[in-house]
Write a structure and sequence with these properties.
methyltransferase; 281 residues; globular; EC 2.1.1.-; protein methyltransferase activity; transferase; Rossmann fold; alpha/beta; PrmA1
Length: 281
């Protein structure tokens, strides 16, 4: 039996609609979205289309275009709580305000072309991993010097410092990324704690207590030896950019290098892991 009321005013329907967009294992088309919403809540397909239109118009959801297909995704055109503690906020000079809850950590990101707006699952997974390692874990002890390899928008560097690291080196060879990361660092008032550079990470940069890298598996595999030599004892690695099918290989490879996986998670066929350095000379 279908329900014949204004579904846009039903909090249960609206909550389920947002869950479908955020929790779907793979990207979901508008047609599949409305079909699932209708099936899950008992509203008509027409009502489900109305709900989707309403959520897009209010910047709760958005359409993305990938390889000629249209998909429904969470929108980051307004502040979005992406983990237990982190909130991603777009920069709006006229009406920008921080989150109400004291426990939330806001990261302001200006619109740009660099990777790291929060729209991609690997960015959210990295933020979730940082949240777990530095804010939510009972043994969390954020401190020391961090590095963000392939910083993009700078979002992970910002998260690391806001979660407690005393400084961060953010590296990216793409000059557009460097420019946008520098802007985001300034917007978050962290110029004194985050250094953005177009260099490649190497041994001359010193040692780190935590390194974040959202890169594809072959690159992460190549970096394992360097990470071993430039990290402090008991250092943490936040790694993502790997497909779910590559996660076991990543864990095995880093295990051979002296790192033990302590946390993993996957979203939309992408995965992330937290590693702790257990290697002893």
């Amino acid at each position: 039996m279908t329900r014949s009321f204004d579904s846009c005013n039903d909090p249960c329907v609206m909550q389920r609609a947002k869950q479908i967009a955020t929790e779907s294992e793979f990207r979901i088309t508008p047609r599949d979205f409305t079909r699932r919403l209708s099936t899950d809540t008992g509203i008509t397909p027409g009502q489900a289309k109305k709900v989707l239109k309403h959520l897009v118009s209010t910047n709760e959801l958005t359409y993305s275009y990938n390889f000629g297909a249209t998909h429904v995704e969470p929108s980051f055109a307004k502040p979005v709580k992406v983990t237990a503690h982190f909130v991603l906020s777009p920069w709006e000079t006229e009406n920008h305000s921080p989150p109400d809850q004291d426990t939330l950590v806001e990261i302001v990101i200006a619109p740009g072309i660099s990777f790291g707006s929060g729209s991609h699952p690997t960015t959210r997974l990295c933020l979730e991993a940082i949240d777990h390692a530095l804010l939510s874990s009972p043994n969390a002890s954020p401190s020391g010097r961090a590095a963000d390899v392939g910083t993009g928008s700078g979002v992970l560097a910002l998260a690391l410092v806001k979660a407690g690291c005393h400084s961060c080196l953010a590296l990216d060879t793409d000059l557009n990324c460097v420019s946008e990361a520098l802007n985001n660092v300034t917007l978050n008032h962290l110029d004194d704690k985050i250094t953005v550079t177009p260099e490649l990470l190497n041994g001359s940069h010193g040692n780190f207590s935590i390194i974040a890298a959202n890169l594809r598996f072959p690159t992460l595999k190549d970096l394992a030896g360097l990470f071993l030599t430039i990290t402090d004892p008991h250092a943490l690695l936040i790694l993502s950019g790997v497909r779910a099918t590559e996660l076991d290989d990543l864990i095995h490879h880093y295990g051979d290098q002296g790192f033990t996986a302590t946390w993993t998670n996957s979203e939309k066929n992408w995965s992330a892991a937290v590693f702790k350095k257990t290697w002893k000379p």
